[in-house]
Each structure stands twice: as C-alpha cells, then as structure tokens.
Amino acid sequence: MAILSLHHVTATVDDAQGDLDFCLGGLGLRLVKKTVNFDNHHVYHFYYGDELGTPGTIWTTFPYAGRGVQAGTKGAGQVTAASFSVPTGSLSFWRARLARQGIAVADVEPRFGEPAIAFADRSGLAFELVANGGDERRPWTGSGVDADAAIRGLHSVTCLVRDPEPTIELMTDLLGFSVVERVNGRVRLGVQGAGPGRIIDIADNDNAAAAVNGLGTVHHVALAVASEDEQLTLREDLLHRGARVTEVRDRCYFKSIYFREPGGVLIEIATMQPGFTLDEEPARLGRDLKLPPWEEPNRAGIEAALTPVTPA
Ligand code: ZN
C-alpha cells in the first residue's frame, strides 16, 4: 500500500495576481511557497495549502498569462475537477462568499451522500467544495475564513477517461486504491480508508474528446508516498507493468516521478518530505520569492522578468 493520500494538484492558470486573489481571497487558502516553474523559470509556481502546506492540502498553479499559452480544453485523459473538503453546514457561507466576489456558484447533485457546490476560477478551472463531517484536518484561518467553514484540504479529484477499467486496474493493483462505490458513469476509488484527501473519482465517457493542455486546465495530480525508497520501489513496479516513468526529479520540497495512467491522466508520485519549511520559517511561508539552489545564480534576471504580485 504505497500511496498515503493525494499530495497536490497542479493547474495552468491565467494571470498571477488573479490567481492569488482567487486562491487567497476566494478559497481562503494560504500561500505556502512562491517560486518559479522549475522547467521554465520565467513563470511563477504558487503553492497553496494549510498552514504548512501539508501533503493532501496542496493546490499549485503555473500562471502562464502572456507566455503564448492558449486556453486548454477539458476532456479525456485529464483531471476535470478539483474538489476541496469543507465542513457540513458551511455551503451557504461559501455560496455567499463566492457570490460577493462575482463567482457564479452552482449546486452539484449530491454524490456518494455528500452535498457540494461547483464554480470556476477566471481561467475556467472547475472547482467543487464538498461538505462532509469526517475531516479532522486543521484548517488555515489566516486568510479570513473561520474554522467552522474553512477548507480542510483536497477532498478528491475527478479524472475523465474513455475506458475506466484499465485505469481502475492500475490504481487498485499497484497503487493500493480500492473501489468504494460505482454509480452511473463514475467510480469512486479510495486509499487508506478513503476519507477526504484520499479519493479519486474516475468518470467515464467513451465519446469524450481528448483533453488539450492549456490555461484553465489541470496539468497533473500528485499522490503521496512516505519515502524515497517507496518511490523507487513503485517506479520499478510501474516500469515492470510497461509504464513510461520519468527519472526521479528534485522539486526541492519533495521528490517526484511522473507517468501517465492508461486513460492518459498525468500522475506524479511525490514524497512527503522535506516539505515547505525547508527554506522558510513557518510564519514566513510564501512571502519571498524562493528559488532552487541551481537557479540562484540567475536570480536577478528571473526577478526582473516576473510580474510583481501582492498576496491578497
Ligand atoms: Zn506536481
């Protein structure tokens, strides 16, 4: 049972300031790291989450406005919705808070017994808040949302595929997930008890067009493993199954490997350690632009090319 929970979800979004305003002023998350895309240092990489950016609470964005990236298209082989966990009874608070910010909110037909609301950011990304009573994670309240309503962390992601069975087989055979429930067009998979932050829904539609990456689409979902040893073991197991897996990449705050599951969704396996306090004190998380050691020699040029932003 290698996988502990979701680790983070990463999306391509439009402009950096708009993203900060939405994630801090809208969702009430904490900015836990302001860095750059390690594969393109002219683009920010924002990490949001709870107080320390605990794996399972992390939402991350690449704001690609002005870099020639087109709007993406949601479709098969992609995470099509990111869902956050909120307490039972808090949805009316969220409807009002989001409406005040001009965000249109829709009710979701309750799934698996949990009421939810749906909305989009300015890039067109699909979000849900799922109300439930079982989430003991301590929320961040420093962005203006009280503890009785604040987001606890990720609840789940929805992956859209054309044929669900090969995806389900990989997730259950290799990654330790179990089928929680099947409803029409959707299979809920859970790991380690299948609580909030430990759920992946596989939605299927054999007529779905292929997803196109771009602004307003999720790039990948990351799953957490306890150690680098477990990551290497899982990498070998994936290779034995014929998956094309990257080498281990150093993301500073965790180590990562990437592969596509049979339905085409890009999945990352990320370590729990060392976390976001690696290079900042807990109280100062997200304040300064942090760069990986190998980019420090380029700091002046990187800072000059980034649009200045103000946390909400
Ligand atoms: Zn990632």
Q: What's the structural blueprint in terms of helices and strands?
A:
Elements: E1 3-13, H1 16-26, E2 30-37, E3 40-49, E4 58-63, E5 78-87, H2 91-100, E6 106-111, E7 114-120, E8 126-132, E9 153-161, H3 164-173, E10 178-183, E11 186-190, E12 199-204, E13 217-225, H4 228-240, E14 249-250, E15 255-260, E16 266-271, H5 299-305
Parallel strand pairs: 1-4, 5-8, 9-12, 13-16
Antiparallel strand pairs: 1-13, 2-3, 3-4, 5-9, 6-7, 7-8, 10-11, 11-12, 14-15, 15-16
The structure holds zinc ion (ZN).
Count the E strands: 16
SSE order in H/E notation? EHEEEEHEEEEHEEEEHEEEH
Q: Provide the CATH topology.
A: 2,3-Dihydroxybiphenyl 1,2-Dioxygenase, domain 1
From the alpha-carbon coordinates, what is the Rg to the nearest angstrom? 18 Å
N-to-C terminal Cα separation, in Å? 40 Å
Number of helices: 5
Just name the CATH architecture. Answer: Roll
How many separate domains? Answer: 1
Q: Strand fraction band?
A: 35-45%
- Would you identify the CATH H-level superfamily? 2,3-Dihydroxybiphenyl 1,2-Dioxygenase, domain 1
Q: Order of strands across the widest beta sheet?
A: 2-3-4-1-13-16-15-14
Q: Helix- and strand-based class?
A: alpha+beta
Looking at the structure, what is the overall shape?
A: globular
How would a crystallographer describe the biggest sheet?
8 strands, mixed
Structural write-up:
This protein has 312 residues and is of the alpha+beta class. The protein has a single domain (5-305), classed as 2,3-Dihydroxybiphenyl 1,2-Dioxygenase, domain 1, CATH 3.10.180.10. It has helices spanning 16-26, 91-100, 164-173, 228-240, 299-305; strands at residues 3-13, 30-37, 40-49, 58-63, 78-87, 106-111, 114-120, 126-132, 153-161, 178-183, 186-190, 199-204, 217-225, 249-250, 255-260, 266-271. It is globular, with a radius of gyration of 18 Å. Zinc ion (ZN) is lined by residues 8, 10, 220, 222, 268. Zinc ion binds at residues 8, 10, 220, 222, 268.
